[in-house]
Amino acid sequence: MPSTYYTKEHEWVKIEGNIATVGITDFAAHQLGDVTFVELPATGKSVKQFEVLCAIESVKAASDIYAPVSGKVVSVNEALETTPEIVNESAEAAAWMACLEMADSSEVNKLMSREQYDEFLKGL
Amino acid sequence: MAQLRETPLIQKHTELGALIAPFGGWNMPIQYEGIIAEHRWCRQKAALFDICHMGEFLYRGDIVSGGLDDVFTFSVAAIPVGRSKYGFLLNEQGGIIDDLIVFRLASDEAMIVVNAATAENDFKIISSRLKDPSLITDISAATGKLDIQGPLSRDILTSLFGSEIGTIPYFKFIKTDILGSEAIVSRTGYTGELGYEIFLPAAKVAELWNLIASDPGIKPAGLGARDLLRLEVGYSLYGNDLDETISPLEAGLEMFVNFDKDFVGKDALLRQKAAGGQRTRIAFRVGSRRSPRHHYEVWSGEEKAGTVTSGAFSPMLGCGIGLALADPKLAAIGTEITVRHENVSMAAVVCGLPFFDGGSLRN
Question: What is the pTM of this model?
Fold first, then answer.
């Protein structure tokens, strides 16, 4: 069973085996407004948990996307290079950004469940 | 911080679900359904903008003997009645206090339309430069302004208000009755599209908004879309591309300065012309979808050579575009530059203006 976790920086990460698929939440996409550019990470790049993974730009703002878990980038969603607006249409599914080969599965303990993330949003 | 001001349409914007944010001392709608959707609607159909925040001053008196003719970088006396002209109010150093449009309403009457954030200061300065400050009145609070911009704007307005509006040429205006009040309908705008600006009593603005918005060809658009639209056609934004430290020569807008007449700041501009500028306005296209933004740095090789004054992703061009104040040696079209900010770096090429030339402006 895949399980999905969330960060306070509004990333989601879906864990299937040792593969972690990363994107930003619908909440984050809505806050950004029209997304115009996604800077995807290079495949093969290694990142540590909560370090900058890649970047996103909208009409209104530019912001960094942080890695929810440590790992090595094994694939990226190249469709976002030409059609970044998918992030506004389907942030939590079609607009996944990168898959990481997870280095340490225990890191998910530092992330939030959906219920915890929804509670976190209510407090913002 | 002073209390934010609100236009007569603030409740309407709230009902429409607009994102509302401070702009120039006013609480203004930034977007309704989304900046890019509103931008596209304006380029393809027509968009309705609440521009009630801008300032309007009414001058009554002889244009020359009252002193108005020497206030701006262009001659008001030379504007034929029924026409308007764009130009600048300068300080002694040649810096731009504001960019504005003067409407010649009658031989001894003119309306000056200024930016919201600068209106109060403009009024003090213009008054002080006249022979008698009582010649000018600040009519901003009593005056409403709606902009209707886009290729369908002429059809929409003529179907509502009659065919005369359809005959107005670019930078001309008419006085006409709208909703029982005298209104000014001007063929001007800030989008590069065929469009109109309507001035009428503030008390009538909500009624006019509802009437125009009832046409299915038009949608409301916020200041976010307006900023994208103006940048794509290379129009300057006061506070970004223009301010009191920037001269019209540096801003690439010398064509709006008439050196054959007197105006405050003329000596400084003549000295600047003789000495050659230290910096000049450049336009550039980014080689990706990345957006340059206000204050990002312009680099030429390993040397910092300027600062971005406006930047955005252009939906029409599909790439980042920007304006910058930069070393004049970068001014040649085709010059390769790098735009940098923190860990972001984007390759760009200097280009001509406008960025987007396909608008319906002169249709």
Answer: 0.94
